Amino acid sequence: MTISRLSLKALAIAVVVAALATAALLLARPQPFESAVLGTDWECTQTAFVLTTCAPRVQQAIPAAETSRKEAIRPTRG
Q1: What does the chain look like in DSSP terms, one character per residue?
Q2: Is 0.70 surpassed by the pTM of this model?
Q3: CB burial class (10 A; 0-12, 13-18, 19+) of residue 44?
Q4: Residue (of 43, 62, 39) closest to 52 by Cα position
Q5: Per DSSP, what are the bridge partners of residue 44?
Q6: What pairs with residue 54 in β-bridges?
Q7: Is 15 helix (H, G, I), strand (E, B) or coil?
Q8: What distance, in Å, lies between the first and last C-alpha atoms of the chain?
Q9: Most exposed of 1, 25, 59, 76 (fewest Cβ within 10 Å)?
Q10: Residue 25: which of 53, 47, 52 has the closest Cα?
Q11: What is the pLDDT of residues 23-60, one digit of tens each?
Q12: Could you state, in order of their start, the residue ranges of all structural domains in the chain?
């Protein structure tokens, strides 16, 4: 069984393309980092060492049932 030069070349090209695609996916994934300028109240990510985005950190949400209960129970006078 002989392997032609064309199939070896095609296999090498396929391996290179797969390696480049893997590297691109790893670089494109957003990486979280701490911003010394903005402080701890901000959450920043950097994608592919080029695009940087920052957003305020999400505070703990209070369930709606607790907030409606507090409003429903009001102190009475007397």
Answers
A1: ----HHHHHHHHHHHHHHHHHHHHHHHHS-EEE--TTT-TTEEEEEETTTEEEEEEPPPPPPPHHHHHHHHH--PPP-
A2: no
A3: middle
A4: 43
A5: 33, 54
A6: 44
A7: helix
A8: 101
A9: 1
A10: 47
A11: 888 877 777 888 788 888 888 888 777 788 888 887 77
A12: 1-30+39-72
